[in-house]
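2024-03-11 09:14:02 INFO worker-7 job=invfold-0412 stage=load source=structure_tokens
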């Protein structure tokens, strides 16, 4: 089972392996090597303004490329990293890589806007905010270039703590987004306590927004909630022109999905930006 084919090639870990102490230990060891050995890279997926369809930034998504050339998607290692605490050094590496990339884009005159995912464990970790500050200082990146995506579940786990951390992040200049919005046991009354910039509607609602009136009702509610609270509302997982059109009409401010661009290497992302600039004139 450990070698059954996964979506993006050969699986190195099967879900069953997570149960065994030894195998979890092996995965931990491999992931630790991967962190040190430069096997973790970032892909960048474009986001566009719903009204103009112009690029407005990207989301950084982690990929693990093993020395054998296998590409392991985050669904196969982020949960293990989360359980073992390796997500803390992993998250730091991701932010450092994103910060270096953003700084390089800024140096070429491209105003960076990069969303970076933050896991529940990272949010709970006492050194989280100061580690971000350290990376900013070391890379000369600016907090304003980043939007930190925190899942609704992570925020609701310990609301008081999350409010405190998000306040500190906002004070430093970071934007904060609620990721996968609509999937958690969302207590809407808590939202006003968080210093947020963005709600990101989970892609499960986007997938059938044109065909399922219930998903569409959820999307409309989130859009009106976001508008009422003065937040950007991002639709993620947009795959078709019909979805894009409907979501713009409903009032999403930002669109992201394969229809506009898949997660790509930094070089491909810059090429994509240039191609967009050429076609819009
Ligand atoms: P997410 O943050 O909600 O990211 C959105 C996921 O949807 C990404 O999957 C993206 O590639 C995928 N996606 C984007 N557009 C479409 C589309 O049009 N159709 C479909 N079917 N999928 C689309 P990915 O890259 O596999 O990442 C999965 C999850 O892994 C992320 O969900 C996030 O929770 C986690 N993740 C990825 N990178 C990191 C990271 O650096 N740190 C942490 N903590 N988590 C990460
Ligand atoms: Mg995200
Ligand atoms: Mg999401
Ligand atoms: Mg997700």
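2024-03-11 09:14:09 INFO worker-7 stage=emit residues=281
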């Amino acid at each position: 089972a450990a070698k059954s084919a996964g979506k993006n090639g050969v699986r190195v870990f099967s879900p069953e392996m997570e149960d065994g102490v030894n195998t979890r230990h092996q995965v931990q060891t491999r992931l630790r090597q991967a962190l040190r050995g430069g096997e973790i890279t970032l892909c960048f997926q474009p986001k566009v303004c719903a009204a103009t369809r112009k690029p407005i930034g990207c989301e950084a998504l982690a990929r693990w490329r093993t020395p054998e050339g296998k590409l392991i998607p985050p669904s196969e290692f982020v949960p293990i990293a989360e359980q073992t605490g390796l997500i803390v050094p992993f998250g730091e590496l991701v932010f450092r890589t994103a910060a270096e990339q953003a700084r390089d884009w800024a140096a070429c005159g491209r105003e960076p806007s990069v969303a970076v995912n933050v896991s529940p464990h990272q949010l709970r970790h006492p050194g989280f905010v100061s580690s971000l500050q350290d990376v900013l200082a070391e890379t000369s990146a600016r907090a304003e270039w980043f939007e930190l995506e925190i899942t609704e579940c992570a925020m609701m786990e310990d609301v008081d703590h999350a409010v405190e951390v998000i306040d500190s992040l906002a004070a430093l200049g970071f934007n904060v987004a609620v990721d996968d919005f609509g999937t958690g046991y969302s207590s809407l009354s808590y939202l006003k306590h968080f210093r947020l910039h963005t709600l990101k509607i989970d892609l499960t609602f986007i997938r059938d927004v044109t065909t399922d009136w219930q998903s569409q009702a959820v999307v409309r509610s989130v859009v009106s909630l976001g508008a009422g609270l003065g937040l950007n509302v991002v639709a993620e997982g947009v795959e078709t022109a019909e979805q894009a059109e409907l979501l713009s009409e409903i009032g999403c401010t930002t669109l992201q999905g394969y229809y506009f661009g898949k997660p790509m290497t930094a070089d491909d992302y810059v090429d994509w930006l240039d191609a967009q600039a050429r076609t819009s004139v």
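2024-03-11 09:14:09 INFO worker-7 stage=report msg="The pocket of magnesium ion (ligand 2) is lined by residues 59, 117, 149, 179 (CB under 6 Å)."
2024-03-11 09:14:10 INFO worker-7 job finished
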